[in-house]
Design a protein that fits this description.
The structure holds two protein chains of two kinds. Chain A is an alpha/beta fold. Chain A contains nine helices and nine strands. By secondary structure, chain B is of the alpha/beta class. Chain B has a six-stranded mixed beta sheet with strand order 5-6-7-3-8-9, with helices on both faces. In chain B, strands 14-15-16-12-17-18 form a six-stranded mixed beta sheet, with helices on both faces. In chain B, α3 packs antiparallel against α4, α5 crosses α6 and α19 packs antiparallel against α21. The longest helix of chain B is centred in the C-terminal third of the chain and has 38 residues. The N and C termini of chain B lie far apart (66 Å). The chains are: A alpha/beta, B alpha/beta.
Chain lengths: 237, 652
C-alpha cells in the first residue's frame, strides 16, 4: 500500500491546480509558498524531451554554469600530477592526487566528492575506477570539460556550480537549479538558463515536439507543471 | 513489424520455399516447424541478414535489433563467462574494449574526442550496469555467481548453451531468433525460458522440436512445408489440428471434383453416339477440360517408423542399484543410490543438468565405474543403450550406414537390412553414407534401427529426443509405447516423458525421489511449482534459514533420533512391501511346481528359469528378513530412549 502523504504535502498539493499549466514565474512563487521544512530544500527541474536516447544521434548531454549556482557546496576531486597538482590545489580543489587517491577509492570505497576532474595523462589511473565512478556518473569526460589540462578553471567552474545535464532512459533531464532559500528571480534565471541551453542542444534527429513537459518541484514537495510556451518569453527577457 | 513478401530460397535446383508472404508482429511468439532440412534455420539466417533470399522482399523497421542464439558452443572457450554474455551487446562491448585500450595507453597519448564518443555509447547503452545485468541474467539461467569469472570451457554443454542464451538476452533485442534453444537444457531451464519468452515484449521466432515448449510458448506456428511458409494461429496442438483439417478439406475438394468428372464421363460415353444428345455430350467434354484438379504438392515431412521388439522377456527383476556413489574429483554427483527396476516398467529419470542422470545410466551400462555400491542386471536381461553423444556409439566412422547395421545381423539378407534402414528414412544412396558424415538426427535414427535389429529387452536411452525432429519424436513415442520390454530413460522433453513414463525417479541434491506413476500424476502430487527455479530457490533459502534458527536453538540429540526413527519407519514399510511381493511370487511358483502336469507341458528351460527365480527370491527374502530384524531392533532402542510423546514439535 502506498504511504499516505503528510499533512504538509497535502496542503501543498491543494494549492496546485493539477489541470493548469503555470507560467515559470507563477510556478516558482507557488513553490516558495508551500509550507516550509526544517531544512533548505533544493529546487529541481524536470524536462521531458521529445528524444529517444536509445539512438546515438538523439542524445542530449552537456554541462553549464548556472548564473546563481545551485546553492550546494561541490566537493571536487582532481587527478593530476606535478605542476597541475599544485594548480588544482590553488584553484580550491578539495582533494588532489594520483595513484594514492585511486587506491583509496578502490580499497576503501571512499566517495566523498561530487565531481572528478582529471588531466589527460592521468586517465590511465582513472580508467581503473570505471566500475566505481561510472555508475555514479562521476567519470571525467572531455565533453563535460572534466578531462582538461586547464585544471584551474575547471575546478573554479565546478566549485561555482557548474552542473551536468543528461537525458535518462525515458528522455527526461533532471537537474537541481537552486535552493528554496534563493530569491524567486534567481531561481527563474537559473531555470531559464538551463532550458535555453537544453533547447540549443536539440539534436537534429529529434522529430516532433522537443520540449514536451516541464515540471518544477522542491525536494519533498509536489511537482508543478510549467507551460512550455511561457518559458520562451522568460528566455527572451 | 517484419514482413515477408513473396520470399523464396533455393539451393541449386532444390527449392526450400517460395511465394512466402507473412508478417511477424511484436509481442507475438512464432514457433517455426518443419522437417529436417526444410529450411527452418535458413529462414532465421535470412531474417538476421546472414543469408540472402533467392527472391522476394523482407522489410525490417529501421534500427531493429536482432538477438540470434548461436549454436557454436566452442567459439568462446577461453573467454570469461561474464565477458561472453556482455559480448552479446556488440556495439557496447566494442566501445568498452576500445575505451579500456585507450585508457591503458593514456599516459603516452590520450585521444579525448574518441574517448568522449565511446563514453557516450557506454552511457547511452547503460554500459556501467552491463556487468550487473549480465550477472543477473546468468543467475536467472541457474549459473551461480562464483562461476561467472571462470572461462566458458569450465562449463558442461548444457550450461554453455545457457551462457550463449544469456549473451543473446544481454543485447536487449527487439527480435529474438532462437534455433532449438531447448536442446541440452534441463526442465528447470526450459521453464525459465518459457517464462522469459512469455514476458518478452518484442517478437520471438523459435525453431524447436519440443512439443510441450511449443505448446506453452508459441502464439502462432509457422509451418515450412509444401515448399512454402504458412502461419497457423495458436500453439502446436492447434496447429496439428488445423493442418490436418486443412489437408482433409483439400483432399475432399479434389475427391469431389474427380467424382464430378467421372459422372460427366459416364454421360458422355452413354450419349456420344446418340444424335439428339451429341451436342450436350460435346459440351460436357469441354466442361471436363475446364475443371482444374489441384495437385497437392508433396509434403517435405518424412515419418520414420520405429519398431522395437524384445528377443525374449527378461527376468522379473531387471536392474538393481545398491548404494551406488560416484564423484568426479571433489564434485560428488551420486551418493547412496539404491533402487530396483522391474520388468515392463517405463522409468523416466529427471533432474537438473549435472546432477548425475547420465552418469547413473553409464554406471548401469558399465561405461563408467561406480566409486561404491553395486549394480546388478537381472536374469536374461539384454540391454540396448542410446548414449547422449551418438559419436560414442558409432565407432569406426569410415563404415557405411549399411555395413554398420549389417554387422549387427550378419546372417540376414540385404533386403532385411535395407528394410530396416528404409524404416528410419535411409533410402537409395543414403545407405552408403559414411558414419562420420551423419547429422545428429540421422545418427540417432540409425542407432534406433540397430536396436530394432538387435531386439534388446531393456532399452536405456539418454536424452533420445535431442537431435530428432518433431515427427521422429512422435513416431519414437509410438514405437516405444508398443515396445513390451523395460524402458529406462533420461529426457528433458516433458511431452515425451508424459507420454511414456510409468514411474518417475527424480534425482535431487538430497537424494532420489521415487514416484510410481505417470508424469502428470507426479506433477499433480509434487505440484508444478517445484520445477520453478524461483520457487525452488526460495524454498532452499527458507530451508537454510530454518536450519540456522534450529541450530541457534541448540539442537538436542532427540531431534536427530526422531529423524532417524522416521527414516527407519519408512525403510521398514518399504522392506515389508518388498517381502510380501517376493513371498507372493515364491508361493505362485511353488503352486505351479505342485501341479504334476506342469512339468509335462513346460519346456525344461522355462522350468530351470523358474527354479532360478525361486532361488534368487528365497535369498532375497532371507536378506530382507535380516534387514527387517535389524531395523526393528534399532527402532525399539530409539523408542525407549525417546518416547513419542516427548516431541516438542507435537504441540504439547
Amino acid at each position: 500500500m502506498a504511504a499516505r502523504a503528510s499533512k504538509r504535502y497535502r496542503a501543498a498539493n491543494e494549492a496546485i491546480d493539477a489541470s493548469k499549466l503555470y507560467r515559470l514565474e507563477e510556478a516558482v512563487d507557488l513553490l516558495k509558498g508551500f509550507p516550509a521544512l526544517k531544512f533548505d530544500e533544493s529546487v529541481d527541474l524536470a524536462i521531458n524531451l521529445g528524444v529517444d536516447p536509445k539512438h546515438a544521434d538523439q542524445m542530449v548531454r552537456g554541462a553549464i554554469v548556472l548564473p546563481h549556482g545551485t546553492g550546494k557546496e561541490m566537493r571536487v576531486l582532481v587527478f593530476a600530477k606535478g605542476d597541475k597538482e599544485k594548480e588544482a590545489q590553488e584553484a580550491g580543489a578539495d582533494h588532489v592526487g594520483g595513484e594514492d587517491l585511486a587506491k583509496k577509492i578502490q580499497s576503501e570505497n571512499w566517495l566523498e566528492f561530487d565531481r572528478v576532474i582529471a588531466t589527460p595523462d592521468m586517465m590511465s589511473v582513472v580508467g581503473r575506477l570505471g566500475k566505481i565512478l561510472g555508475p555514479r556518473g562521476l567519470m571525467p569526460n572531455p565533453k563535460l570539460g572534466t578531462v582538461t589540462m586547464d585544471v584551474a578553471s575547471a575546478v573554479q567552474e565546478h566549485k561555482a556550480g557548474k552542473i551536468e545535464y543528461r537525458v535518462d532512459k525515458s528522455g527526461i533531464i533532471h537537474v537541481s537549479i537552486g535552493r528554496r532559500s534563493f530569491e524567486s528571480r534567481q531561481l527563474i534565471e537559473n531555470a531559464a538558463t538551463l532550458i535555453e541551453v537544453v533547447v540549443k542542444a536539440k539534436p537534429a534527429a529529434s522529430k516532433g515536439v522537443y520540449l514536451k513537459k516541464i515540471a518544477i518541484s522542491t525536494t519533498m514537495g509536489p511537482g508543478v507543471r510549467i507551460d512550455t510556451a511561457s518559458v520562451s518569453s522568460v528566455m527572451a527577457a | 513489424m517484419i514482413s515477408l513478401s513473396n520470399l523464396a530460397k533455393r539451393f541449386g535446383g532444390q527449392t526450400l520455399f517460395e511465394g512466402a508472404s507473412l508478417q511477424f508482429n511484436p509481442g507475438e511468439r512464432y514457433g517455426i516447424v518443419g522437417a529436417n532440412g526444410s529450411g527452418k534455420s535458413t529462414l532465421l539466417a535470412i531474417l538476421s541478414g546472414d543469408e540472402q533470399p533467392s527472391g522476394g522482399e523482407i522489410s525490417v523497421p529501421k534500427r531493429t535489433a536482432f538477438g540470434v542464439l548461436r549454436q557454436d558452443h566452442f567459439q568462446y572457450e577461453s573467454e570469461r563467462i561474464l565477458d561472453v554474455v556482455m559480448m552479446g551487446n556488440a556495439e557496447l562491448w566494442r566501445a568498452m574494449v576500445e575505451k579500456e585500450q585507450l585508457l591503458a595507453n593514456a599516459d603516452r597519448h590520450f585521444d579525448g574526442d574518441r574517448y568522449a564518443r565511446l563514453e557516450d555509447v557506454i552511457l547511452r547503452k547503460d554500459g556501467y550496469m552491463l556487468e550487473a545485468r549480465a550477472g543477473e541474467i546468468l543467475e536467472g539461467l541457474g549459473i551461480p555467481t562464483q562461476s561467472h569469472d571462470q572461462p566458458l570451457s569450465t562449463l558442461s554443454g548444457g550450461f554453455k548453451l545457457r551462457v550463449l542464451l544469456a549473451q543473446v538476452l544481454a543485447s536487449d533485442p527487439d527480435v529474438l531468433l532462437l534455433d532449438e534453444p531447448t536442446n541440452h537444457l534441463d526442465i528447470l531451464s526450459i521453464r525459465w525460458l518459457e517464462r522469459f519468452l512469455e514476458e518478452f515484449k518484442g517478437c520471438a521466432l523459435v525453431v524447436s522440436h519440443d512439443h510441450r515448449f511449443l505448446d506453452n510458448v508459441a502464439t502462432t506456428i509457422v509451418d515450412i512445408d509444401y515448399q512454402t511458409l504458412k502461419a497457423y494461429p495458436g500453439n502446436y496442438q492447434d496447429f496439428t489440428r488445423a493442418k490436418a483439417e486443412d489437408r482433409e478439406r483439400r483432399e475432399k475438394e479434389i475427391e469431389k471434383r474427380e467424382k464430378e468428372i467421372a459422372e460427366r464421363k459416364v454421360f458422355i460415353e452413354r450419349f456420344r453416339a446418340k444424335a439428339s444428345k451429341a451436342r450436350q455430350a460435346q459440351s460436357k467434354l469441354k466442361l471436363i477440360d475446364r475443371i482444374e484438379i489441384e495437385q497437392l504438392p508433396q509434403s517435405s515431412r518424412r515419418y520414420p517408423r520405429f519398431r522395437f521388439q524384445q528377443r525374449r522377456p527378461s527376468g522379473k527383476q531387471v536392474l538393481e542399484f545398491e548404494g551406488v556413489a560416484k564423484s568426479y574429483g571433489d564434485d560428488k554427483v551420486l551418493e547412496g543410490v539404491s533402487l530396483a527396476i522391474s520388468r515392463g516398467e517405463r522409468v523416466a529419470i529427471l533432474g537438473p543438468n549435472g546432477i548425475g542422470k547420465s552418469t547413473l545410466l553409464k554406471i548401469a551400462m558399465g561405461d563408467v565405474p561406480a566409486d561404491a555400491g553395486t549394480v546388478e542386471w537381472g536374469y536374461e536381461t539384454h540391454p540396448g543403450y542410446v548414449a547422449q553423444d551418438h559419436r560414442e556409439q558409432l565407432d569406426g566412422g569410415r563404415q557405411t550406414v549399411e555395413s554398420w547395421l549389417w554387422n549387427a545381423c550378419p546372417a540376414e539378407s540385404t533386403g532385411f537390412v535395407r528394410g530396416h534402414l528404409g524404416a528410419v528414412l535411409f533410402s537409395g544412396d543414403e545407405v552408403h553414407k559414411k558414419l562420420a558424415s551423419l547429422s545428429g538426427g540421422e545418427a540417432a535414427r540409425l542407432i534406433f534401427a540397430r536396436h530394432a535389429v538387435e531386439r534388446p529387452n531393456v532399452l536405456v536411452l539418454d536424452e533420445p529426443t535431442n537431435h530428432l525432429d518433431l515427427e521422429a519424436i512422435e513416431f519414437l513415442v509410438k514405437g516405444l509405447t508398443a515396445y513390451e520390454g523395460t524402458l529406462i530413460f533420461v529426457s528433458h522433453d516433458r511431452w515425451f516423458v508424459g507420454e511414456l513414463a510409468s514411474r518417475i525417479i527424480e534425482i535431487t541434491k538430497n537424494g532420489i525421489n521415487d514416484f510410481p506413476g505417470t508424469y502428470e500424476e507426479y506433477l499433480e502430487r509434487c505440484g508444478d511449482d517445484h520445477l520453478d527455479s524461483d520457487v525452488a530457490l526460495r524454498k532452499k533459502r527458507a530451508a537454510k534459514r530454518k536450519a540456522k534458527t534450529r541450530e541457534g536453538r541448540t539442537r538436542g540429540p532427540a531431534a536427530g533420533d526422531r529423524r532417524r526413527r522416521r527414516e527407519i519407519e519408512g525403510r521398514l514399510q518399504h522392506s515389508m512391501a518388498e517381502l510380501e511381493q517376493a513371498e507372493g511370487r515364491v508361493a505362485a511358483i511353488n503352486e505351479l511346481f505342485c501341479d504334476a502336469a506342469f512339468f509335462e507341458r513346460t519346456p525344461r528351460s522355462e522350468v530351470n528359469e523358474l527354479e532360478a527365480e525361486r532361488r534368487e527370491l528365497s535369498a532375497r527374502i532371507d536378506r530382507l528378513m535380516k534387514e527387517w530384524e535389524t531395523l526393528e531392533n534399532e527402532l525399539r532402542g530409539l523408542a525407549e530412549a525417546d518416547p513419542p510423546g516427548s516431541d516438542p514439535g507435537s504441540g504439547s
